[in-house]
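Progress note, sequence design subtask.
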């Protein structure tokens, strides 16, 4: 019974995290994403991909979003992959360009963040 209760509680916490992440993108509050970054994050911004520390990832996201302020975010998919993993996919419109955003969350932390051109 404790195991089932733990899974249910964790599932609700994960959805709360994903809602916070989605709202950060919707309302151009990308700085709110930083508290969810894991200690190491696989980050891809356009054609450049790397495994970076939390601080380096935050700096790269800041540089991108300062040059490309989010005008709108459209959620395409928010899927629980397991009790400990979740995937968010959507698009952002910056006024000049549209980008695909995909985020992998494990245990309430962003472990992968990708920004690609929208085809």
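Output:
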């Amino acid at each position: 019974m404790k195991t089932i209760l733990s899974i249910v509680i964790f599932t609700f916490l994960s959805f709360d995290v994903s809602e916070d992440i989605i709202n950060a993108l919707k309302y151009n509050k990308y700085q709110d994403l930083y508290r969810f970054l894991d200690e190491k994050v696989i980050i891809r911004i356009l054609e450049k991909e790397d495994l970076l520390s939390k601080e380096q990832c935050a700096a790269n996201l800041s540089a991108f979003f300062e040059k490309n302020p989010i005008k709108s975010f459209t959620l395409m998919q928010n899927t629980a992959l397991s009790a400990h993993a979740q995937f968010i996919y959507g698009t952002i419109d910056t006024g000049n360009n549209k980008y695909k955003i995909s985020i992998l969350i494990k245990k309430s932390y962003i472990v992968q963040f990708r920004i690609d051109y929208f085809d």
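Residues 2-117 form a domain with the Nuclear Transport Factor 2; Chain: A, fold (CATH 3.10.450.50). Work on this subtask will continue into the next period as scheduled.
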